[in-house]
Amino acid sequence: MTTAETHKSDGMTKDVIVFVCILALAGLQFLIAYQDISASQMFVRMLSVAVIEAGLALLFFMHLEENRGLKWFFVIFIVFVLLALQYGWTDSFRLTDGVPWAK
Amino acid sequence: MSQADLSIHGQVSRTSATEMMTAPAFSLSAKKMAMWLFIIADTATFAGCLFAYGFTRNATPNWPRPFHSITNVAVMTLILLTSSFTMLIGVRSARNGDKAKGFRWTMITAVCGIMFAGLHLKEWMGLIAEGATLFHNPWGTPLFSSMFFSITGLHLLHVTGGVIALIAVGLRYQGGRYNADDLEITGLYWHFVDLVWMFVVPLVYLLNLAH
């Protein structure tokens, strides 16, 4: 086997492993859906699995692991957006539970 | 330091500055950078939509859980994840100079996308037959079907656009007008569509599964 062929085969092996991991994680999400746990616990578990899945796809399918600068740009932007969205989150609890100081 | 040395150093520093200013951002080609910027912006769009869904679901008492079977969504997920892998094979083949294989796997990816869209429409038709529309559903709050059709519809729109792009770019790649880079850029978009689905499935389908 030539060096180029070895590289090709290595790359493909890595892709297959990542693909199988993503499939297994997707399967895990379906298993979590049938667990007898509260909706909030289910939400946290499913979201954690989804984040790992998405991370694998970003790093290896979209080759983000090869570009350090872009990887950090992406991570910082997304974290900022997600944190900014949290600003309104507590309002949804207020709608159901009422304003804590409105007594 | 002589005048000659200074001019040589001046020349070198000017060249470096020019190189720095003309070097592509993150060492990416302009096309690939544009796709990444689109992906980043679209990630924010979907994050906003899913956040709005979470907000509404949390703030609505007696949120309906109408899904009894996950078979269809499981098959859809399998098809979409597999299509990401076939796209990867296509891009890798194109990078290795195997044009026929690159084109073939891109078209297989497009077929997977069409199958996914078909199953998605089947899912929609089932819900519509049960009486769910954008502003009404038989299970309680109409916000459920508004959110469901909006989020999955936005994703379906992305899949449809992706299939069209895959076919168009694939054919042009086959015809020699586009190269492996163009195929890779379309692949980036396709992986993104797959990535969004990884969040839509648990949040919109699995959390609304009837127990």
The outline of chain B comes out as: globular
- Uncertain runs of chain B are 1-7
CATH topology of chain B: Four Helix Bundle (Hemerythrin (Met), subunit A)
Fraction of residues in H or I helices of chain B? over 70%
Average pLDDT of chain B: 90
Q: How far from one another are the termini of chain A? A: 77 Å
Q: Architecture of chain B, according to CATH?
A: Up-down Bundle
The level 1 CATH classification of chain B is: Mainly Alpha
Q: Radius of gyration of chain B from the CA trace?
A: 23 Å
Secondary-structure content class of chain B: mainly alpha
Describe the structure.
The complex is a heterodimer of chains A (103) and B (211). Chain A is mainly alpha-helical and 103 residues long. Chain A has two domains: 1-66; 67-103. In chain A, 79% of the residues lie in helices and 0% in strands. Chain A is flat, with a radius of gyration of 20 Å. Chain B is mainly α and 211 residues long. Chain B has a single domain (27-208), classed as Four Helix Bundle (Hemerythrin (Met), subunit A) (Up-down Bundle). Chain B contains six helices and no strands. In chain B, α3 packs antiparallel against α6 and α5 (143-174) packs antiparallel against α6. The longest helix of chain B is centred in the last third of the chain and has 32 residues, at 143-174. At the A-B interface, α1, α2, α3 and α4 of A face α2, α3 and α6 of B.
Summed up:
The complex is a heterodimer of chains A (103) and B (211). Chain A contains four helices and no strands.
